[in-house]
Amino acid sequence: HVLTNLRISDKTTLPYIKSDTGDAEISLALFQDGAVIKNLGIGKGSSITYQGVEKRLTLKVYAAAIAVGAYEIDNCFSDATVTVKGKGDAVIGGVAVRAGKITNSYSRGAIYFEGNVIDSRAKNRRGTITPGPLKVGGVCAEPDKKISGCYNTGSITIKASAEDLKIGGVAAEPNNSDCADLYNTGKISVIATGDIKNAFIGGVLGYGLTYRGLIGKPIRYVDSGYIYNKGNVDVTIHTGKFISVGGIGGGGKIGFNGNTAYFGGVYGFINTYNTGSISVSSTGKVGGLSAGGIAGYGSMIINSYNTGGISGSSGAETNLHLGGLGGNSVYVQNSYNIGAVSGKGSGTNVVGGIMGRADVRWGETDKTLYAVLNGFWLKQSKAGGINSDIKYGKGSYYYKNKKDITTVRNNP
Q1: What global pTM score does this model have?
Q2: Distance CA 43, CA 332 (A)
């Protein structure tokens, strides 16, 4: 079943207002809540639009083509364009805002957000203007239990300032969902219009992992198939606190808390690859700006590879961590990068062919701890790339000048 030329907007949809709590929300989708939705498409000529018609209150916006919430969504698609403009916080999905399970579904429509993301409840209750959260997922913003067989080909464009940004080509925040066979080919562009304190941005997932685990023990095995990204990810920040960008995911919920064998089982980004280019830049101070071909921050990267170019430019007082596979606080195993990596700018730049900052280790025992195990990187000759001035290679060592070979041989 396909609905074409479906148009839903705030001009004809009434908001939900609860004055005693300050809640003021608007839900823009074909269904607000559903049990099981199957075999449904939103076709060409369709649009979901919020332009901020409500003037008295600041609204929290939930926008998607098919459903704000559903227990299960299967074999559904959307070609609708989803546009949200104005002030307030929002949760946006191409197909659904949230779903218990979403399978075999895709989105081809563009998603566009523009505005200052402020806490709607604080504004309505106390008149206080404080930054708020924004979540955007190309297919589903918040899958809860399972997301599999899903993909996005539409572009995602964000122009905003915010407290907390979670942007993913397929899902914004998968919580503890089982993830399998996901991919994105749509371009993701995030342009800060002001300060963004925290952000997790990924080609497939914003904040979360493709293969989940629990502290201290492995979780049951789930065959994740292949999860990949081919879309370019471009992020421009003015100022911020912690910004994490990855070709597959921005970062994981459970990060490494020290350089010890902290977890009993593997988890993170497993059986993934990225071919899209990843570009990050800041014009001012950012406490931590991390980017990697697979993950930006805080996860394991296993059985994965990157071929996309990774580039970063740091503003004054920005700490930039840039890596071919991971940016900061990642563990790498059985993975490789052949994409060009380059970093520049007036900030502090820590850049590597495999990872930027190698500050965590993992191992099966306390005596076998590694930052990288079977991690590989192809020496590059591209101008401006890491070690692009290397001219001579021998074994595992590379040299800029012939005399360096003699120096190392004489001083083992």
Answers
A1: 0.91
A2: 42
Q: Burial letters for 64-89: b for 16+ Cβ neighbours within 10 Å, e otherwise?
A: bbbbbbbebbbebbbbbbbbbebebb
Neighbouring residues of 107: CB distance < 8 A, sequence distance ≥ 6: 65, 77, 78, 79, 94, 95, 138, 139, 152, 153, 154
Distance CA 6, CA 342 (A): 45
What SS3 state is found at 409? helix
CA-only gyration radius of the chain, Å: 22
Three-state DSSP state, 222: coil
CA dihedral for 207, 358, 356, 315, sign (positive or negative): positive
Q: Is 88 within 8 Å of 61 (Cβ atoms)? A: yes
Give the separation between CA 24 and CA 132, rounded to whole angstroms.
14
The structure tokens 């941005």 sit at 201
Structure tokens at 146: 């399972």
* pLDDT tens, residue by residue, 348-375: 999 999 999 988 887 776 777 888 988 9
Q: Contact 95/75 with Cβ under 8 angstroms?
A: no
Cα distance from N-terminal residue to C-terminal residue, the chain: 71
295 close to 268: Cβ distance less than 8 angstroms = yes
φ/ψ region of 406 (left if φ > 0, alpha if ψ in -120 to 50, else beta) reads alpha
Q: Give the model's pLDDT for residue 343.
A: 92
Nearest one of 94, 104, 164, 99 to 135, comparing CA atoms = 164
Would you place residue 396 in the very low, low, confident or very high pLDDT band (cuts 50, 70, 90)?
Answer: very low
Which residues are registered as beta bridge partners of 187?
Answer: none
Q: How far apart are CA 178 and CA 100, in angstroms?
A: 11
